[in-house]
Amino acid sequence: MKTSSLKLKTFAEYKKAYKKSVENPEKFWGKIAEEFTWQKKWDNTLSYNFSIPEVKWFEGGKLNITENCLDRHLENIGNKTAIIWEPNDPDEESRHITYRQLYVKVCRFANVLKSNGIKKGDRVCIYMPMIPELAIAMLACARIGAVHSIVFAGFSSSAIASRINDAECKMLITANEVYRGTKRINLKSICDEALKKTPTIENVIVYRRTVEPTEMTAGRDKFWFDELQKVNQDCDAEVMDAEDLLFILYTSGSTGKPKGMVHTTGGYMVGATYSFSNVFQMNDENDVYWCTADIGWITGHSYIIYGPLCAGVTTVMFEGIPNYPDYGRFWEICDKLKVTHFYTAPTAIRSLAKQPIAFVNKHKLSTLKVLGSVGEPINEEAWHWYNDNIGKGNCPIVDTWWQTETGAIMISPLAGITPTRPTFATLPLPGVQPALMNEHGEEITNIHEKAEGRLAIKFPWPSMARTVWGDHQRYKEVYFSAYPNMYFTGDGAYRDATGNYRITGRVDDVVIVSGHNLGTAPIENAMNEHEGVAESAVVGFPHDVKGNALYAFVILYPGVEATDELKKEIRDLVSSTIGAIAKPDVIQFVKGVPKTRSGKIMRRILRKIASKDTSNLGDTSTLLNPEIIQEIIDGAL
Ligand code: WTA
């Protein structure tokens, strides 16, 4: 982006831009969109109707996001490093890939996709570790108009299979193995397990991350490198309509299977890039930006790849984990790569803050300018530790609130511009119109008085998800039925008398564990698959490192013995069905769970028991089985 004219520089400029964005959103976003490369300008900036719901931005505009991430930069910054890749093993060499090299690699791999029958609109599942080829695969899809559906490489084979089947993906791109700390994990064998149940997959492309022998199925599986030899490196960008699909990304819901959030090309590009440029304020061409998220999550999509590359900055991809070879790894990398802008999650901050401070103090951290936080509320203690020990009191912290569904940061300070307040995500970005709703479903409009409520957004923004893949009705029910003509976030929020927001957490049955959204229903379903389990209920409870942890109340069939071995089996079942991140920390065997007369589990009470906060359980008179409560409390772990 030729951001100079659009990057806000002062708080007064922010306020002015915000005001304009509310008074005339179309003009505001239209001007920003003009800074990008379009093959044809749009006819209509915005049309929307939240009651259908339907949202279209920049309709009729033609573009390709990779021309904005790559081609456009070749002339001026072709030799600038686009991606620095830092391997799991600090003794392995890092890779520096320039914009020009990335462009060539993306075009070439795009031709591999084409030669394997992938066309515009086809869905491609990517299940890869944090290596540059993951970025290349996703951009190659975008280059030819294929829709990528990236599945985090910590998910289990059945989680991959259900996502592939939901999106009817034609191709799977993976790696043979992945390094994670001291472990080597065979991704390909996890894929092979999934591929037994995925009839739509025609080809599998396998990148060799290690030299180990890899089992390949003839006719279906092909090595990345072999395929590259068969094609050239010229690939024109497919002409995409602004509203053509860019990607699908699955996020947990409070009920049922994960939702495939659909993001489209033009609005997503504009939202991700505008927010990136303004929130992080990378003002020096030598600045190096590092977001520690995995590309399998929305943070990695918007703020490792699309936003930073469209903005023409240097973005770091890290393959490893924060505690390998030791707890100083993040800080070692910051020094080694001269990182100036560092973006991570509160759960990582809390776990590193628990370690001896020598792990931090061994490193200089003198290049850092801006620190970011994302994924869950950051508590006061973690905020100060981050500010004092990592930022040395000199780096503004941007606490960025947003969601897979919003595509881009919605509420956050702009680094060095917005006054920060610990634990507050502060103010909405220009173009974002939050609404705080009271318990009667009315908007609390007085922004000069403190208030608490549920967070909704009352006007469309370009990067919002357009639907749930294959289930528009669900999109409507989950996001557009709580309040008429508003998008409901599922989060609670507090607002201070100066209009700063603090996000207080989910108000539905989604629990955020170590920054990962987990729906409780799929975990319960997985546990209920065990032959000894009659019923189960999962809730979150506060955890000092993970933010929240999972507590499972499990009812066994008569005659089944409650043993530790059984607990392990149940945990393993959750791990193999969903992934290790969904394993409950605590399993308590119970005779029953509190239920309403209509048979609904009273999770509110279970949450209090799990949190050891049983002094006031509220009204239990409407329960079908109030006597069960004391029994559960007595057996609580
Ligand atoms: C939570 C991650 C407080 C919130 C980008 C939201 C946060 C959910 C923050 C979305 C923050 C994210 N402060 N809570 N700065 N950022 N959340 O889809 O509950 O993985 O609804 O997107 O994370 O998680 P998701």
What is this structure's SSE topology?
Layout: H1 11-23, H2 25-33, E1 44-49, E2 54-59, E3 62-63, H3 65-77, E4 81-86, E5 95-98, H4 99-115, E6 123-127, H5 132-144, E7 147-150, H6 157-167, E8 171-175, E9 178-180, E10 183-185, H7 187-195, E11 203-207, E12 221-223, H8 224-229, E13 240-241, E14 245-251, E15 259-264, H9 265-280, E16 288-291, H10 298-311, E17 314-318, H11 329-337, E18 341-344, H12 346-353, H13 358-361, E19 370-374, H14 380-390, E20 397-400, E21 434-437, E22 451-457, E23 467-468, H15 472-480, E24 487-495, E25 501-506, E26 510-513, E27 516-519, H16 520-528, E28 533-543, E29 547-556, H17 564-577, E30 586-590, H18 603-610, H19 628-635
Parallel strand pairs: 4-17, 6-7, 6-8, 7-14, 8-11, 11-12, 16-17, 16-18, 18-19, 19-20, 29-30
Antiparallel strand pairs: 1-2, 3-13, 4-5, 9-10, 14-15, 15-23, 21-22, 22-24, 24-25, 26-27, 28-29
Helix pairs in contact: 1-2, 3-4, 3-10, 4-5, 6-7, 9-10, 12-14
The protein binds 5'-O-[(S)-ethoxy(hydroxy)phosphoryl]adenosine.
The site of 5'-O-[(S)-ethoxy(hydroxy)phosphoryl]adenosine has 24 residues, from helix 10, strand 19, strand 20, strand 24 and strand 25.
